[in-house]
Amino acid sequence: MTEKLRLNLVTPEKQLLENEEVDFVALPALLGEMGILPGHVDMLVQLGMGSLRYKKGGAESEFAVLGGFVEIVENTVNVFAEGADLAEEIDEEAENQKIKAAKASLSNKDADIDFELAEMELKQSIARMKVKRRRH
């Protein structure tokens, strides 16, 4: 039998994957994309914003993840994400509206807004849109 990885994906709201047996995981580590195969060395990695993909048999699934960290221990990949959305469930129109609103907020220097929050919302929506567009 071919060795597999067990993948868990958890956000503060819910567990999205639990002990999913997969062949390969690619994720957005803070300093660049990282691939994980069975037998990978144990480590803790800071998660950036972007695409978390995994292969199971011939099928590939994808989530947009929004920061957090990943623990790799004995062929188990535990992803603790600040937020995650399945690519197929991302609402393209809603994300486009969020991008427009965040850009408008950031361009209004005189407004009493939280620029860090607006910038974070913009980055999150852009990350979701990149994942959504990869699936088309």
Summarize the structure.
This protein has 136 residues and is of the alpha+beta class.
Write the layout of secondary structure elements.
Layout: E1 5-10, E2 15-22, E3 24-29, E4 32-36, E5 43-56, E6 59-73, E7 76-81, E8 84-86, H1 92-107, H2 115-134
Parallel strand pairs: 1-7
Antiparallel strand pairs: 1-2, 3-4, 3-5, 5-6, 6-7, 6-8
Overview of this structure, please?
This protein is α+β, with helices and mostly antiparallel strands and 136 residues long. The protein has 2 domains: 5-87, F0F1 ATP synthase delta/epsilon subunit, N-terminal (ATP Synthase, domain 1, Sandwich), CATH 2.60.15; 90-134, Up-down Bundle (Single alpha-helices involved in coiled-coils or other helix-helix interfaces). The chain has 2 helices and 8 strands, in the order E-E-E-E-E-E-E-E-H-H. Strands 1, 2, 3, 4, 5, 6, 7 and 8 form an 8-stranded mixed β-sheet that branches. Strand 5 and strand 6 form a beta hairpin. Helix 1 packs antiparallel against helix 2.
Instruction: Tally the structural domains.
Output: 2
Judged by helices, strands and strand pairing, the structural class is: alpha+beta
**CATH third-level topology of the largest domain:** ATP Synthase, domain 1
Order of helices and strands: EEEEEEEEHH
Estimated radius of gyration: 16 Å
What is the typical, i.e. mean, pLDDT? 88
CATH top level of the largest domain is: Mainly Beta
Shape label: elongated
Number of helices: 2
How far do the termini sit from each other?
A: 34 Å
What kind of sheet is the major sheet?
8 strands, mixed
Q: What's the CATH architecture of the largest domain? A: Sandwich
Q: Which range best describes the helical content: under 10%, 10-25%, 25-40%, 40-55%, 55-70% or over 70%?
A: 25-40%
Total DSSP E strands:
8
Q: Runs with pLDDT <50, length 5+?
A: none
**Strand percent estimate:** over 45%
